[in-house]
Amino acid sequence: MWGRDKGIGYDLGRRGRNNVMKIIITYTIISIFLGKGGHVNASIHEYMNDGFIPRFNSFFFHGGSEGLFASKPPPPHHQHPSSDDKSLNGKSFIRFESITFRRPKESASKQNAMQQRTGLVEAIVVEVKDRDKIGKTALHSSTICCTPELAKEGLCKVGEVIIRHDPDKPEWPKRIQTFFEGNDEEAKMVLGTIDINATGMYYLYFVICDPQLQDTVLNGRTVWRNPDGYLPGKMAPLMTFFGLMSLAYLVLGLVWFIKFLKCWKDVIQLHYHITAVIGLGMTEMALWYFEYSNFNSTGKRPMGITTWAVTFSAVKKSVARVLILVVSMGYGVVRPTLAGITSKVLLLGVLFFMATQALELVQHLGNINDLNGKVQLFFVLPVVLLDAVFIFWIFSSLSKTLEKLQVQKNCCIFIVHFLAQQ
């Protein structure tokens, strides 16, 4: 009986199996080692000697972007939250903490020690739908910083970012100015918080208009918080989703385990592989839930937990695709083993695991949207191509398997008719 055969793994020699396992284990250990002990800044954006890049007639640094929900109304007077929660309960905000700007010594030495405001750095917070209110775009030119010509028209002040305020919301976009004093090399931004009272996607830019400050570096951090935690608005529903999926996998696992025990005598090797996929899915969903829960509580994503979640996700996807492929080939149905093609199937599975692992690590530990097109293509294209290979191989194998089943069915009908005539 095929259920007593040793299965897919035994179609490949011991040396081949060991090599495949070494590749998977080594790759996983490297991924986990790279992420061990670190954090990825998410809703807490940290800046460490970050520089400004030229943009039109300005120098700017993208300080972050998050989806934020509007602050909730304060709780009723009869509710008394703990002292730790009073300042955060239901609040949505962007907070600037320990922000400092350091300009080059050469630039500072050119200034008069007794002079005030010898350099300006502006922090601009703008909602995505109002980004066109930053700068002035003419037919053949674009400017972010005010020029003497525009200042003469009364549109702005020379050396500042051009902002056209909305009449309905005159305080937006927000502008926070930090000045260098005298010949100081460092300027500290005043600790401040911007309350968010409208749901939307918000961007933070640090902008310099003075060319003498183009080599200025930025240090510090900003904290972005939603009413219910640090999860960005676009990610907030995912914590609930992964929690529900964890329960769903738990129920599925219990049902499958009961059925597995009842039909123990008829279990084939394929059923063990299905059990492994369910177990991987259950572990993956639980890890993602705890990862998002921790993210929501602290504002940071521990690279260790995230890497483990990504690894289990990549393993589950790879094993599930390999399982569908071997079933479509007729394994456990019309053939007891896969003979000489096992190595090809396992190689495709390992390649898909590595490509998926790399893509998801970039997606969850970085921001693939901030990468240029070529770099994005480098991570996305291998996954797409390998998925296409899986799909083509699955459907072509399924077609051949169905043909074999049809032939076997016709043979059985012929034998029945032949025996009946006898």
TrEMBL record:
Subcellular location as annotated: Membrane
Stretches the record annotates as Disordered: 70-89
Main location as per UniProt: membrane
InterPro entries attached to this UniProt entry: GOST_TM, GPR107/GPR108-like
Topological relation to the membrane, as annotated: Multi-pass membrane protein
GO CC terms in record: Golgi apparatus; membrane
Ranges where the GOST seven transmembrane domain occurs: 237-411
UniProt xrefs under Pfam families: GOST_TM (PF06814)
Swiss-Prot/TrEMBL keywords: Membrane, Signal, Transmembrane, Transmembrane helix
Transmembrane annotation, as ranges: 235-258, 270-290, 310-333, 345-365, 377-395
Identification of the protein by name: GOST seven transmembrane domain-containing protein
Organism name: Opuntia streptacantha (Prickly pear cactus)
